[in-house]
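Marked as duplicate of an earlier ticket. Keeping the data here for the record.
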Amino acid sequence: MNRNYIKFLGLSVLAVFFLSSCKKILDENPRSIFTPDYFKTEAGVQGGITSCYGHLRLMFGNGYFLNANQISTDESTWGQNSDGNVKTLDFSGVGEIQAQTSNTGILWGAAFPNINTASGVIENGAAVGVSEALVAEARFFRAFDYFLLVQTFGGVPLDLGAGELKFNTSTIRTSKRNTVPEVYTKGIFPDLLIAVDKLPASGRVTGGATKTLARLYLAKAYLTYAWWLQNPNNIPTYPAAQRTDPNGHDASWYFKEAYNIAAAGLESPGSFGLQPTFYDLNLGSNDRNNEILLYADHTQASATYNGGDLSYSTGGFSTDSFAQWFEQWNYTNIRTSSSNTSWSAVSSVQRAATQPLGRPWTMLAPPQGVFKSTFADKSNDSRYDATFVTRYRSNWKEAALKVNNAIPENLYNANFLPVANGDAILSFLNEDVAGVDYSNSKFNSNVGAGVLPGRADFVIEPSAFSRICYPANWKLGPYRTDNNGGLGQPNGSLTRPFPIAKFSELFFIAAEAAVKGAATRAIGGTYANDGTARGLINVIRSRAGKWRFDNGNNIAKVQDNSAVMVAATPGSIDIDYLLAERSREYFGEGYRWWDLVRTQKWTDYGRTFVIAGKTNPNDWKDHTVGTFTRNIAATNYLRPIPQSQLDALDMTAAEKKAYQNPGY
């Protein structure tokens, strides 16, 4: 493959039926149709593997998929521009989750065709002479998809028409759901155990599946299943099943195994490891670094291989990458003056294909608890600064914006003070402070920002963060090298790889298993620590204290606060502390709903939230703070089976009703 990267060209369908169709995404060799016999060739098997990587882009990077795993948590609520696709999942009185319209079908529709493709590779790989390691990649992806499905829907079908875990080419239109224990013990665990054994330490291609990746998902699957067996808050499951393990193990055994597998991954990481700073981990120019174990890849070199248009994308249910748009407010409304004596509106911050900016959709807004509680330490902990855009800087020169037929050297902003190109036009403050004037009677901030004496930038305090105006997610912002000194293509599909799995999560998995009672041991190697939950998390917190760049102030900052961070870690770690640390590490990346569902903390964390704009969320100047309540039922811990799938079944109405999860 060219440059040893996985590339994808087109989608072709082998057979279309209820749960499975064989998708082929081949490198530089488009075909209009593929028959079952094609899987019996080496090229067909290798094409099937490529398809496994390609299907990741149907989910990860898709804004609606991100929304389904973010909204209604303590990290996200609906934003000003949200439509029914978003609001129906927030449970806050603005919509009702439905099988027809709540986007749960994105996962269902992407996973099952790929599961069938993976089964085709597994069944035919040895016969056509491909290596066990290559077949192990297919095993990983089959387990990966089933793991996503079982966390989201409960028990799902292992039989797609030809028998359990068999490659199917028929047009079967009936289906039977397996139970949660069956999906884990028949499907997920066996495939991942083989993947751990057969996958190489270094990927076959850049971004390819590895032993470390398989260990991470095996450990996480063990951890999640252990919680399911324990069921501390009596959350119902479906299809109905006893909370017992067919293999005779109890929850403590699975917590122990989760710890041991994660520990093995930390001690034998292959080429993977932690980046030196959290900033380095998420910096666009450092994409595909050794902390990212799996990503949905994209490129600016070709719209075809990118999976989305490079100049203009509409978003939607496709391979386009546009998740970051959901977490970006409409900063282009900011206006500055061309005069130092009277107001004259100039658009000083325009859309640009740069990491802090990009295309604003204002679909997901962070509640104020994110800024006041989760990221309370903004001085020592670098993760706040390397997660959010807290300064919106002028770019009128890149836009070639003219005032009186000339590109100005200065504009005039808050207090009619001069600002140069690249200066902060609006700043989100770290804390509430006294003396912010939001009256706008003189300086006319059209986005509801305030002024402080002597400052040229408009300011907004955390208590004024709303559904319409808030710090955006910097981590996922666009990065391109073809802007050529201008604004670039901010409306195009994002061309960065979207991160799916990170090496850092091995520390969190082991720590969570330890909190749940797994016996600990000293961890050796590069990340040596005592192996306790506190010791493991302090490796992460130590890294979080190391700075090399200050995003907010846009200056180099070489500072090591790791000792302070470690000293501030509680002596006793509990699940709530781990969830807070997970949010600081993975905010806005689509982890949160699954984290809260796994630990059965969703209701506790998502029930209420605080945000400004209570009186009128469409009014930029409404800083009225409101407390909002969500009505989350125990049955909502499982998402609805997509109605489109039920409609395709050749089954009776009663059978379809029984197939659907309760409560929908």
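See parent ticket for discussion. The CA atoms of residues 234 and 634 lie 9 Å apart.
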